[in-house]
Specification:
Radius of gyration: 16 Å
Distance between the termini: 45 Å
Strand content: under 5%
């Protein structure tokens, strides 16, 4: 089966062009979910990397952070109390996230499994940062928006933002 979210070189080049045009000020909208996700990822990256120093590399640090008991408890609480958060997790579960480099699918079996959720968010981040997500693609918008909501809730909690 050929998936429309697995990109060839021409599609990646198109994405690169879109991102470049945005970088030089064409159609930049700071309310855009892609920009919000990039910004919250920078905050999240600084947070988890400062706490998971025993792990080497972003993926390992993200996964170690997702295994922390207080973060698991937060995830459970948010699933029960924050419908936007739960809906965002369900978007990732429903769509899955393909690794645009090796074509493997990252998926969530149970929304309660924070490690699987974190793995999917991290894959969205990797795809975005390595040219596999385009601001004009509706599926990409959905995955990035869901990842933004989940990541921002975790950062808000870490910073004790009400």
């Amino acid at each position: 089966m050929i998936r429309d979210d697995i990109l060839d070189k021409d599609e990646i080049d198109k994405h690169i062009g879109e991102w470049y045009r945005l970088s030089i000020g064409q159609t930049v909208d700071q309310s855009d979910t892609f920009f919000r996700f990039v910004a919250v990822w920078v905050a999240f990256n600084a947070f988890y990397s400062s706490r998971m120093k025993k792990e080497y590399g972003d993926r390992k640090q993200v996964m170690a952070y997702a295994r922390e008991s207080d973060v698991i408890a937060l995830h459970s609480k948010l699933l029960k109390e924050d419908q936007y958060y739960k809906d965002a997790v369900c978007v990732l579960k429903g769509q899955g996230v393909y690794n645009t480099s090796d074509k493997r699918l990252c998926s969530i079996d149970k929304i309660e499994n924070l490690s699987q959720v974190a793995q999917c968010i991290y894959q969205v981040r990797c795809n975005l940062f390595h040219g596999g997500k385009a601001p004009t693609d509706l599926r990409d918008q959905s995955l990035v928006d869901a990842s933004y909501i989940i990541t921002s809730r975790i950062v808000e909690h870490a910073l004790k933002i009400p």
